[in-house]
Amino acid sequence: MIHVNNFTKTYHDFVAVRNLTFNVEAGEILGLVGPNGAGKTTMIRTLSGIIPPSSGTLSVAGHDIVSDAVMAKRALGYIPDDPRLFDSLTVWEHLEFIAATYGVDHFKPAAESLLRFFNLEGKRNHVVQSLSRGMRQKVAIACAYLHRPDVILFDEPLTGLDPAGIRAIKESMQQQAAQGAAIIISSHLLELVESLCSHLLVLHQGQCRYFGRMEDVLQVLDHANGDASLEDVFFSITHSDNPDLGSF
Ligand SMILES: Nc1ncnc2c1ncn2[C@@H]1O[C@H](COP(=O)(O)OP(=O)(O)OP(=O)(O)O)[C@@H](O)[C@H]1O
Hints:
Layout: E1 2-11, E2 14-24, E3 29-33, H1 40-47, E4 55-60, E5 63-64, H2 69-74, E6 76-79, H3 91-102, H4 108-117, H5 133-146, E7 151-155, H6 163-178, E8 182-186, H7 190-196, E9 199-204, E10 207-213, H8 214-225, H9 230-238
Parallel strand pairs: 3-8, 3-9, 6-7, 7-8
Antiparallel strand pairs: 1-2, 1-4, 4-5, 9-10
Helix pairs in contact: 3-5, 4-5
Protein name: ABC transporter ATP-binding protein
Domain ABC transporter: 2-230
Keywords: ATP-binding, Nucleotide-binding, Transport
């Protein structure tokens, strides 16, 4: 569903991501982790078609994100770390706008159910400018789900959410994956990634240090430590001077 092959991104002469290759299939949730500046947002923004790759190929639901950009974007839901909404539109108008843009017929039942799920019914006629940070995040996620995308990209999805919001969004991600979406979650919250993701990609200084199944990476360290967590894995990969550690 998501295919990234030999992807490199440079900003002027700085290489932010180098030769990255990975796939995410339908129903899988990939956790994208790495220290500040590792290249996570660059990866997500390129896959969502916001910035162009310098080299390599990236495709979404069979559509190349450069040569078939419109179809790729139709198949995508993207939730940036700082949700960009239209301040003077209400919550409901956002859903209407997304339905019209993506040509979603009979969108009202799905929109109503998203409002209920994210506890936004009481805010449906409020302009989003008047909403809290967490509520805006939930509106952005509801909009991203409305057109039933095959691929969903989250950049730090839980910022500003209360415990009920966190639970709702985690549950919604699992539901989307169960319905066949391929999902990438970029986050510094390792517990979130460990509890939710089927696969893991660790980026460090723009390079892939591990890509594979979550249970496999935890098992490798488990043999050494007895009770490894993703946090142990993260530090052993990203704080190691050994360039081969990431290959496991
Ligand atoms: N527009 C830009 N121009 C120049 N350099 C950039 C630009 N955007 C990002 N970079 C650089 O590319 C590298 C990767 O940045 P990126 O934002 O992708 O990292 P990240 O893993 O998302 O970091 P964080 O966890 O802090 O959000 C950093 O060194 C950053 O300074």
